[in-house]
Amino acid sequence: MTDTPVTDLFIIGGGINGCGIARDAAGRGLSVTLAEMNDLASATSSASTKLFHGGLRYLEYFEFRLVREALIEREVLLKAMPHISWPMRFVLPFHKDMRFDSETPTSKLLTTFMPWMKGRRPAWLIRLGLFLYDSLGKRGILPGTAKLDLSHDPAGRPLKDKFQTAFEYSDCWIEDARLVVLNARDAQARGAEILTRTEVVSAERLADHWVIRTKDHATGAEQQHRAKMLVNAGGPWVADVLHQKLGQNSRENVRLVRGSHIVVPKLFDHGRCYFFQGTDGRIIFAIPYETDFTLIGTTDADHPDPETKPHCTEAEQDYLVDFASQYFEQPLSCEDIVWTYSGVRPLYDDGASSATAATREYVLTLDRAQAPLLNVFGGKITTYRKLAEAALAKIGEVFPQVPSDWTAGVALPGGDFAVADVETLKTKLAADYPFLTPYWTARMIRAYGTEAWDVLGDAKSAGDLGRDFGATITAQELDWAIAREWVRSGDDYLWRRTKLGLRLDEAQRAAVDAYISKKAARLAA
After folding, report:
1. pLDDT, greater one: 104 or 247
2. Are 226 and 368 in contact (CB under 8 A)?
3. CB 328 within 8 A of CB 373
4. What is the dihedral of CA 24, 29, 33, 36, to 10 degrees?
5. Which residue in 355, 349, 342 sits closest to 44, CA to CA?
6. What integer pLDDT is reported at residue 243 of this predicted model?
7. Omega of the bond prior to 298 within 30 degrees of 0, cis?
8. What angle do CA 231, 192, 213 make, to 5 degrees?
9. 209: helix, coil or strand?
10. Gap between the Cα atoms of 221 and 215, Å rounded
């Protein structure tokens, strides 16, 4: 044990919070090891609604600090990753039937002072909320709110005739799982050790350091690590790690909330998203997805425990289909669903009465009773970088010489170009590789940005990229993903690094998995 080197930080969890902290810490010169028991972004961080957003509905809960921080972050993040994030406009149709969630502070306030409203969301309140949304955060790239006449605007065509007015505002799309991988890659480039499919079996807390035992799921090999400080960023497993793996007594806990989504064939031709308000006070989004599909979600339901794999239940599918059908002229049915996914949000347990009302604020606790322990509770994908900075402020109490914040404005791998230059980049890639189709070109830029040239290499034709697996997937790209992005299975590539599983049949997906598994087995040998 004494021969084992002592790192500064050992991070448990390879979701967005763990990888964001690893990147920030490594960039400040700290030695970092991160262990993830499955694939990177294998749980919550690949199952979001894919948005960098301020959280318009959180204003009804008076979470102004969280919303302001998230609104400011949108453009900071957009500039650092213009390949995997891009601006989107959201259309919020208005109708007098809109209702509040009766548990929100805003609803209770209006019920007290304006009981005749009977839980309705009036137009003036929506305008006030959007005014705050525009005003709380700085906007340099994203346009502000506008009012739409749906009888003339193309956004009104797919909707029922009763929706004549809408409000339009800005937020951003994000490829969530790629965000995690790029943070891990940047952390690794700055010196961090990233261990995937490596489970923390136990951790012993000594006076001045931790002794951590891990197991490699691919080889079965066990390894011992030592670190001056431990960071528990276990996401849905944060409480399990704290109490079971680390043997710590703590009252801090998480509330596990399941969010489910459905994917259906494309419902509208324009590139804007819809923000739908229900008669039950909840909201859902309908978002253009992967060119030929529409993403609809999300639900909010308490989830029993992290070991129960989340899935979109029949009841949730029915709920989302019925909700969307209240807006679209052409009603949906469950037969339209081509894919579903669910994730478990590890929200800080603040004792809220419902899953919807539970806070989205993150909470960081530093325990310095012996070797220091930092626990990460809650958080949302939009504020992951600010959470990492807050975590480093806590870590700085242990390592007082740690340099100051640095990540704002620093591009992630492949993101070293301007937001406005996406089309220019596509044009250049198409000129350099004339065999690429327009879809293939756009996909490569959106996935890899300026690294698309590294992936394609010196290929002069599609045949130079090796085996064609369908849907523009080639052996050369899979080799890149295996070598550079910790891909070890078909699911890693088809459903997390990309969503190309939607475009392949069962046999094609099996072929991709077999190719990756064979290559991965050689690496593990």
Report:
1. 247
2. no
3. no
4. 10
5. 342
6. 87
7. yes
8. 50
9. coil
10. 6
Token pair for 339: 């894919």
**Pairing of β 51-52 and β 32-35:** unpaired
**Cβ atoms < 10 Å from Cβ of 393:** 14
Beta pairing, strands 198-205 & 254-265: unpaired
| Listed residue (236, 232, 260) closest to 245, CA to CA | 232
User: What's the one-letter identity of residue 359?
Assistant: T
CB atoms within 10 A of CB 259: 23
Concatenate the DSSP letters of all residues of 8-46 into one string: EEEEE--SHHHHHHHHHHHHTT--EEEE-SSSTT-SGGG
Q: Is the pTM of this model over 0.90?
A: yes
Lowest mean pLDDT of 50-54, 417-421, 459-463, name the range: 50-54
pLDDT digits (tens, 9 = 90+) for 357-374: 556 678 999 999 999 999
Q: For residues 196 and 219, what is the distance between their CA atoms, to the nearest angstrom?
A: 12
Banded pLDDT at 293 (limits 50, 70, 90): very high
Query: Facing residues of 91 across strands?
Result: 168, 274
* 107: pLDDT strictly greater than 90: no
Per-residue pLDDT reduced to its tens digit, 179-236? 999 999 999 999 999 999 999 999 999 999 999 999 999 899 999 999 999 999 999 9
d(CA 55, CA 57): 6
Radius of gyration of the chain (CA): 23
